[in-house]
Amino acid sequence: MQIGLTGFASIGLPGLLRLRAENALKPASERTAVIMVWLPGGLSHVDSYDPKPDIGSEYRGPFKTIPTKVPGMHFTELLPLQAKIADKFTVLRSMYQKAGGHPAGTMQMFSGDSDERDKPKPRLPDWMSVAHYLRSKNGGRDNPLPNYIGVPPASPEYSSPAYLGDAYAPFSVTDDPNRPSFQVPNIGLADESETRRLSDRIALRKSLDRMERAFDREGELGALDEFESQAMTLLTNPHTRDAFDLSKEEEATRERYGRNRWGQQLLLARRLVEAGVEIVTSSLNGPLCGRVNNWDDHAVNHHQFEALRFRMPNYDLAVAALIEDIYARGLDKRVLVVVTGEFGRTPKISFDRSTGAGDASAPAGTLQPGRDHWPRAFTNIWAGGGIRTGQLIGATDKRGEDVIERPCGPGDFLSTIYHHLGIDSAKVTINDFNGRPVHIVENGRPIPELIS
Questions:
Q1: C-alpha span between 312 and 328 (Å, rounded)
Q2: Strand 148-150's sheet: what is its strand order?
Q3: For the whole model, what pTM was predicted?
Q4: Domain boundaries, given as residue ranges, for the chain
Q5: Do 348 and 363 contact (CB within 8 A), yes or no?
Q6: Phi/psi at 354 (5° precision)
Q7: Any alpha helices (H) in 244-364, and if so which ranges?
Q8: 439 burial class (0-12, 13-18, 19+ CB within 10 angstroms)?
Q9: What is the pLDDT of residues 307-328, one digit of tens each?
């Protein structure tokens, strides 16, 4: 959702805050949170967390296999930093879903939508919006920050609050946190004069709506005052500005995450959960991916292996730093970190001619290798959340084409996240546009190895 305060007295932001996610049954120090690191387009599992060094050249990439800190667990050489801290996360190698396109694949992972066809927009709300909605029912949360923030949002074209309404969409941070002039619109005011002017605007709006209140039989305008007050707090409370202020971090910390967009996004995600935000997504896309700005490494887009060489050092650094920080700062019981994309890439290498030159892509017309969409088997990693780490869950066959041990589908993925957030996905339903109760997960259960 595009949030703006150009007309601050409008319902937009107060409406968001009225419906924001809250979990007042626990103190702030105990409320659980999730950071989802999203890899749009899909990371090649066989070139990263599930290497197959003994397969033929039609399948095997050029990367060597390296041991990790967990005996028997190996990654490719593209992940040296994560290999060193593999005891701090768990690798799920047996993820699968049934949709081969980006829209449908993302919808399966975000909402459990079983439709394998690509649709122009989601019909079901994503798990982030659902969690936001359900936690709002408890009431009493006094944190001025929005409770669902995208830094930036994960695949906004394929995710949506659907019938929950736009009030449950993420507060969107789209600027580059690594820029010296980085700022978040609508968070904090520069000085007292701006605060006074804002107060004057609120007072003016209230004077204009007195007549409406004579007809307000449901008391909705009285409630609006409270929500509008919360929206003003978002602008005037120093806590909100501080949460987004990366200059408060030591330079060594910022360097440890990587002085680039991805590193600073994940550092900001950590700051936000520390400040009490409970649902944070961070999409690792853009120029750091290579020419086409995502992980969709078809041969027409990227030279598959050059693309991985180009982007993986920044990815490895940022994710390793986030996971280490979650444990070092005592967040590992409360905060669950999930790193995934919508699917993997074909184990068998394809060749096609590049459609254009750029980072990780040869000049147009050059024959280069790629890997295509592969939902039948892929990998994601999990850290924090009180789970037992250093585990290797599931397995794929000798080529990485199909799951042969401990298959986990989108319903299992979603149920596991909901479980961490204290939501029983087997029982909870939400009414759709027609008033029909819809289960938030149709098929699936929490993955036992990934719940505390």
A1: 24
A2: 171-172, 148-150, 279-283, 33-38, 335-340, 378-384, 89-95, 392-393
A3: 0.87
A4: 12-187+251-450
A5: no
A6: -60, 145
A7: 251-257, 261-274, 304-328
A8: middle
A9: 999 999 999 999 999 999 999 9
Residue whose C-alpha is closest to residue 41's, from 446, 378, 383 = 378
Q: Which residues on adjacent β-strands are paired with residue 369?
A: 351
Q: Tokens representing 278?
A: 């409970």
CA 20 → CA 14, 104, 114, 166, 382, distances in Å?
A: 10, 27, 28, 11, 26
**Max Cα distance, the chain (Å):** 78
pLDDT tens digits, residue range 185-222?
767 555 555 545 544 444 444 444 544 444 444 444 44
Cis peptide before 80 (omega within 30 of 0): no
Which two structure tokens, joined as six digits, stand for 189?
């005011």
The residues near 383 (Cβ < 8 Å, ≥ 6 apart) are 88, 89, 90, 323, 326, 327, 332, 336, 337, 389
CB 352 within 8 A of CB 50: no
Q: What fold does the segment set 12-187+251-450 form as a domain?
A: Alkaline Phosphatase, subunit A (3.40.720)
Render 334-363 in DSSP notation, one character per residue: TEEEEEE-S-EE-SS-EEEE-S--BTTBPS
